[in-house]
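Final report, closing paragraph on structural work. Over the funding period we assembled a curated collection of sequence-structure pairs, and we close with a single example.
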Amino acid sequence: EAGSVNLEDFVKENVGKLAADACVWEFGYVDNRETPMQFLGLRGICYVELSIETASRDVHSGTGGSIFPNPAWKLVWALNTIKKPDETICIPGFYDNIRPPSQRDVDLMAALPETSEEYKQEYGVKEFLKGLTDGVDLRIAEVFEPTCTICGLTSGYQGAGSKTVLPARASAKIDFRLVPDQTPEQVLEGLRKHLDDHGFSDIQITNLGGEPPARTDPDHPFVNLVVECARDVYGKPMQIVPLSGGSGPNHAFIHYLKLPVVTSGIGYPGTLTHSPNENIRLDLYAKGAKHIVRIINEFSKA
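Its predicted structure, as stored:
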């Protein structure tokens, strides 16, 4: 969650010591069918804070409202230039390096269960972006399209009742989820140029962390071994998901160590990831251990 800021350099500097044949990631879960899912890739991420300060302290709005610049408005105007209502991200070069999903990816995504009703029930959303409803198009958009998400906005007074204040500072935290072959560096450079070109050179960009996306070939022999080892434990093989919407530092292992990275996780739909009562089921804890034992045993025969 902190971005594993030292991991990439550590891997690059210790390729020999970390040499291996494969990597088993801790990520993964069974879905609502009790089917173990095999995630073979993670989107990248670029997380930034945009901030602007126009005064040394907050001012009474009756004093400065008509003569002092308002950082909250400047930030809102700047944010409005970054993404269009049709979800197009306007940063120069943002889409240039994107590698579209292959037909193999599409086929794997098409084989996955429908998720729209599950999402509507779990999260209370009424509709999806860009007129999407369900089917493979929704699932592909969920993971194979990059994003620009405003995670939070902060400025001025937001407590109970009213307070006539002109704030001195405004900030927004934004994450960009990246797909192959985008990089955080590309996004940071493009974002700075975009803000400058639109007259917002006074908005500061603080890089809060990032990592590139990375994927493992779904037809790698080790993937098939891990998928099939689940059959004896879960009563069925794992189902392959070529790319996850989340992010993690798998790129260093795939890019520098040239390893296939597979998942063998023990989460479930009620895990409540990142919440105060995040949890696992004891039966899945035991199944996860049995799965790992079988992976090691079968790998020793390969």
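The radius of gyration is 23 Å. The chain has a mean pLDDT of 96. We thank the funder for supporting this effort.
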